[in-house]
Amino acid sequence: MRLYDSLSQEKKEFVPRDAEHVTMYFCGPTVYNYVHVGNARPFVVSMVAKRYFESLGYRVTLVENITDIDDKIIQRALAEGRSAAEVGAEFAQAYRDDTDRLGLGRPDVEPLATEHIQEIIDLIAKLIKEGHAYQAGPDVYFKVAGFPGYGKLSKQQVAEMRHGARSAVGEDKIDPLDFALWKGTKPGEPCWDSPWGPGRPGWHIECSAMSLKYLGAGFDIHGGGRDLIFPHHENEIAQAESAVGGPFVRFWMHNGMLNLGDEKMSKSLGNTVTLREILDKYRPEALIMVFLGSHYRSPMELTPAVLEEAEQQVNRLRNVFGELADRAATGDASGVAPPGGAVAAPTGGGGPGAQAALSVGDAPGAALLERVGARREAFASAMADDLNTAAALAEIFGLAREVFAALAAGEVDPATAARIRAELGEMVHVLGLDAVAEGGDAIPADIVLMAEERQKCRAARDFSRADALRAAIAARGYEVRDVPDGYKVVPLR
Ligand SMILES: [Zn+2]
Q: What is the pTM (predicted TM-score) of this model?
């Protein structure tokens, strides 16, 4: 497997530190409000990466922190006359509830900053003792000039960064680039006792302390959004490598940003688009599909049109699973149409006709299973190439198309249907799309194909054929409805 590392800026062969164990740390949200839908992207990327490594046979430990002490939390608490602890606890739980709805499971450890104050204090004390940090009044700062590698992740020169950097009022830093590890308390703020007086930890030190505690130095993958590269991850490297005297992580994995398709999204969904608002309107599988439809490193757009299209794709996959389940359940005695082009063998006949029908009948199933094997291989190669989920999804849809056609042609026997369903199920599981495998409300494959054909006719302005197809679909007991950005097939009552 090859994985892109943002530090060396190249794809490298991924070999974990421990032979059978993959260790990952992703930066989680600061919980001062309901999480933005953009926060769901690193969550989805990390959970899918975990599933993928597990599918390769590794044991995975994924740590994803929750920052529950921060200026924004304190501000909200003051504005609402509540304690910061109360605000932090409320929105940490809301974050867990919202991400639970994605159905991807949870990271193995979700440490809260406020529950790791001792570890943070110990790390700061070590940095001071070894000359990497200093106390200035009630605060403690990291000494950037003492870490030669500073700027290596964000590809910046210290001299240029220093140019224009300045200390805020009340900060007593030696160098304007130095950053706070410990912030002395101000009136009305929550605080903890420390060797440097009452205060609270800076944001960067929190992640270094918690990742080192749970995964140890030199763990495999540290991830988060691209916007965290500087200063957050640059500072994490400086703190952690100064403290441990060696490499902090093996791979830096940064996901691209999520753009909310200009005004369109904001208009239809309000200015702040939270994850829970999206999940109230769209199925979680559709949102996951949208995330996975772009490479994790690419920026991506989230618009109502994109989500609607993903809803259609979810329907399509659910239909394939539903159809396969139905076909698998028919047993081999009934319900299997003769293979396309083959002449049905005369019943009870033992002559050459029966022989011919049997060999022709075997061929489509075997050919289809060969296609399944080829698609699975292509799926595996896509995932092994820096988690190319977009290409992996394309294999799933390609296979779904082939299976649909074979089902519509009556070429899938029950045993083959069961096997394809299991194999396709394993593929969608890796991508966290297990819900589509539940099938349910399956629209028969040939009806879906007719509806798609009708869509093509409409696009080509062949309305008479489109109408004829609608009538044919209605005759089978289904209605094709035009909806924004596509169509929907529903059973007629
Ligand atoms: Zn972090």
A: 0.84
